[in-house]
Design brief:
With 124 residues, the chain is of the alpha+beta class. Helices cover 44% and strands 19% of the residues. Helix 2 crosses helix 3 (97-123).
Length: 124
């Protein structure tokens, strides 16, 4: 398994982020953060991460959270391709790695469940 996070797996510019913010059809939240998702037409999922200094004060904590989110994204592919934005909540820096990974696990399950519901509604 590759430990890289290639450009093809990232939201790279303001246009990519605003597409997700403006057209977000799936939203899931947990203690660590909120994920906004937009089903993608191509066959790859892409991730953008926002960890504001306002919400997570220390740079080491911001970097740790980003690293954990990227690692989780690489190791746990979604059932369908989506463009995602993870936004850390206030106090996320105080959570342990295990707590953050547990929250990400719950978020991924919620995303897959909500996306399945969305597909069922579209099919009807």
């Amino acid at each position: 398994m590759s430990h890289k996070f290639p450009k093809s797996a990232r939201l790279l510019n303001a246009h990519d982020y605003s597409q997700v913010f403006n057209n977000c059809s799936i939203r899931a939240g947990s203690t660590a953060g909120t994920v906004l998702a937009l089903p993608a037409s191509d066959n790859r999922s892409r991730l953008g991460i926002i960890v504001a200094k306002k919400n997570v004060r220390l740079a080491t904590d911001r970097n740790r959270i980003k690293r954990l989110v990227r690692e989780y994204f690489r190791n746990h592919p979604l059932s369908d391709s989506m463009s995602l934005i993870f936004m850390a909540k206030r106090g996320a820096g105080a959570l342990s790695n295990a707590d953050v990974l547990g929250d990400l696990d719950r978020l991924w399950r919620k995303l897959n469940h909500k996306h399945a519901q969305l597909r069922l509604e579209d099919d009807q």
